[in-house]
From TrEMBL:
Domain Tyrosinase copper-binding: start-end pairs: 192-209, 353-364
Position of the 2'-(S-cysteinyl)-histidine (Cys-His) cross-link: C175-H192
Protein's UniProt name: Tyrosinase copper-binding domain-containing protein
Species this protein is from: Panicum virgatum (Blackwell switchgrass)
GO annotation (BP), single: pigment biosynthetic process
Entry-linked PANTHER family: POLYPHENOL OXIDASE FAMILY PROTEIN-RELATED (PTHR11474:SF100), TYROSINASE FAMILY MEMBER (PTHR11474)
């Protein structure tokens, strides 16, 4: 016992010494290259000490062993527990928790970097412009090139951060909270269900694409796009179903193999399959895209997600596209017979399927498309909040260097030297029709006492904000002529079972919601989450926002004082804290 204790004390002393040496070295680094706690030590030194090459924590593992505070964190107090400031990813990474039925390997953290992170620099503006085109249009030769890139990545040693194994783990680490926030080692970095969703995945794909180009020896190589929002791409492309191809993943849903048309708002379990004809499914998908991209996404927070700052609880609320079709297409693709719908259907394993990257290329394309949509309001714009712009991630580049990249670094894809081509927006005018006679003015509704467990459908009347001098029930056109403002239903205090796929639908002015046909206007939105393996017994605490402006106009309810809201459970356990309607201007 004494000898063992002495050995442990010696190891602890060594850890403290290494941390001190690393901290001293870190003082010469640029301010954005945070994280002095031995993450810049070479893997040979780590191997010699017998320490974990994926994680070296300082003595005690508390906040004193974290990264130094950034200037903005010192100013606003985020390093001492207060919320505020950008999310800054530390090099500290912890082992995640996985359920017994998870598929190995169960290690998400990246290899330790042999040197300190470098700050991102834009590529040479004279370099080739990578043009991302849809899988169905690029041809067999081009897809063979993507297959070869995946094969080359898979052939690299697992210790190489550019290997397919490690690239898949990038998503695992950032989606399970394994990465720590700088100055807050008690808090993870979670890039889903917030305003980090789009910029993180853009940065992730940027480096994945450059790694592929480097291995191929083709500087102009661009990722193909799985354009599942247009008829030609609505389904798993045949090339991904070839069992002899590196692009094949055996852990997919076999009933959704080609030529099955995708269901963009798919729900796992009973009632998930809609059994529509291909033509009916395509029309329904168009209406789904219209709701998520046009009428429901009029403000940055409605599309990009809710603000998530240093010290904040994770997952404050996603934007429309992350709910559906992002989450739903992940589940539709994954093997629905598995408890977690691996690979694509769950965060930790989604990056193991080569179709993940063309899937997210389409998500990224939709971000660019959203920016370019000009409606009655004006062209959509991103956040200008510095807490968003200065949030940063750590990713390996094509030279296996660890790079710190910020949100502001990825906002201009022309400066990143890539573009999209060959995909239209056929859903742009697919405005869903209203359904007459589904909201009878009968007996008054029974009052609902929130919070409620959503074991059955719940219908409540929600009062709209009282009219004020500048907002006396103006028409939609009049509102749009003013500043960018939207009337929004907020479903707040949501507590969803983290260990299950959870979904509920939101209907507006449809007391008889069961009479609303598929894709009807009254179905205003859906809450849809993936599982969080390893978090059994916990809940996802978040919120949901639903744009009401165009919807109430279409339902002829623009002048009403109240709105009828019905929440319909589809799958999983969920508790609702309350409902309210607010006006938002961004």
């Amino acid at each position: 016992m004494a000898a063992g204790g002495g050995s442990n004390r010696a190891l602890l002393a060594l850890r403290v010494l290494l941390c001190a040496l690393a901290a001293a070295a870190a003082t010469a680094l640029l301010p954005r290259a945070t994280g002095p706690c031995a993450r810049s030590l070479s893997r040979s030194i780590l191997a010699a000490t017998g320490l974990d090459p994926y994680l070296l924590s300082c003595a005690g593992g508390d906040a004193s062993g974290g990264a130094p505070l950034l200037p903005q964190q010192r100013a606003n107090g985020t390093g001492s527990g207060a919320a505020g400031g950008p999310i800054v990813t530390d090099q500290r990474c912890v082992r995640g928790k996985f359920p017994p039925d998870a598929l190995p390997p169960l290690q998400c953290c990246p290899p330790a970097s042999a040197s300190a992170p470098v700050n991102f620099t834009l590529p040479d503006p004279a370099g080739p412009l990578r043009t991302r085109r849809p899988v169905h249009a690029v041809g067999a030769e081009y897809m063979a090139k993507y297959a070869r890139a995946v094969a080359l990545m898979k052939a690299l040693p697992r210790s190489d951060p550019r290997s397919f194994y490690q690239q898949a783990n990038v998503h695992c680490a950032y989606c399970t909270g394994a990465h720590r926030q700088a100055g807050r080692p008690d808090l993870g970095v979670q890039i889903h269900f917030s305003w980090l969703f789009f910029p993180f995945h853009r940065a992730y794909l940027y480096f994945f694409e450059r790694i592929a180009a480097k291995l191929l020896g083709d500087p102009g190589f661009a990722l193909p796009v799985w354009a599942w929002d247009i008829p030609e791409g609505m389904g798993i492309p045949e090339v991904f179903a070839d069992e002899a191809s590196p692009l094949y993943d055996p852990i997919r849903e076999p009933s959704h193999a080609p030529p099955k048309v995708a269901e963009l708002d798919y729900s796992l379990g009973e009632g998930g399959e809609k059994n529509l004809t291909d033509e009916q499914q395509i029309l329904h998908n168009f209406r789904v895209m219209y709701k998520q991209m046009i009428s429901g996404a009029t403000l940055p927070s409605l599309f990009l997600g809710q603000p998530y700052r240093a010290g904040d609880p994770e997952m404050p609320g996603p934007g429309t596209v992350e709910w559906i079709p992002h989450n739903s297409m992940h589940i539709w693709t994954g093997d629905n017979s598995r408890p977690n719908a691996e690979n694509m259907g769950v965060y930790y394993s989604a990056g193991r399927d080569p179709i993940f990257y063309p899937h997210h290329a389409n998500i990224d394309r939709l971000w660019e498309s959203w920016r370019g949509i000009v409606g009655a309001r004006r062209r959509r714009a991103d956040f200008a909040d510095p807490d968003w712009l200065d949030s940063s991630f750590l990713l390996y580049d094509e030279e296996a260097r660890l790079v710190r990249i910020t949100v502001r670094d990825v906002l201009d894809i022309d400066k990143l030297r890539y573009a999209y081509a060959g995909v239209g927006l056929p859903w742009l005018n697919a405005r869903p029709p209203a359904t007459p006679g589904v909201n009878p003015r009968g007996a008054p509704l029974a009052s609902v006492s929130f919070p409620v467990s959503l074991d059955a459908a719940v219908t409540a009347e929600v009062r709209r904000p009282p009219p004020s001098a500048p907002r006396l029930r103006r028409s939609l056109q009049e509102k749009q002529a003013q500043q960018q403002e939207e009337e929004v239903l907020v479903v707040e205090g949501i507590e969803a079972d983290a260990a299950d796929f959870v979904r509920f639908d939101v209907y507006v002015n449809a007391r008889e919601y069961h009479k609303v046909p598929l894709g009807g206007r009254e179905m205003a939105g859906s809450f849809a989450t993936l599982k969080h393996p390893g978090k059994e017994g916990t809940v996802v605490r978040t919120s949901m926002t639903v744009a009401l402006g165009e919807l109430l106009e279409d339902l002829g309810a623009g002048g009403d004082d109240k709105v009828t809201v019905t929440l319909v459970p589809v799958r999983g356990k969920v508790r609702i804290g309350g409902l309210k309607i607010v006006y938002m201007a961004e």
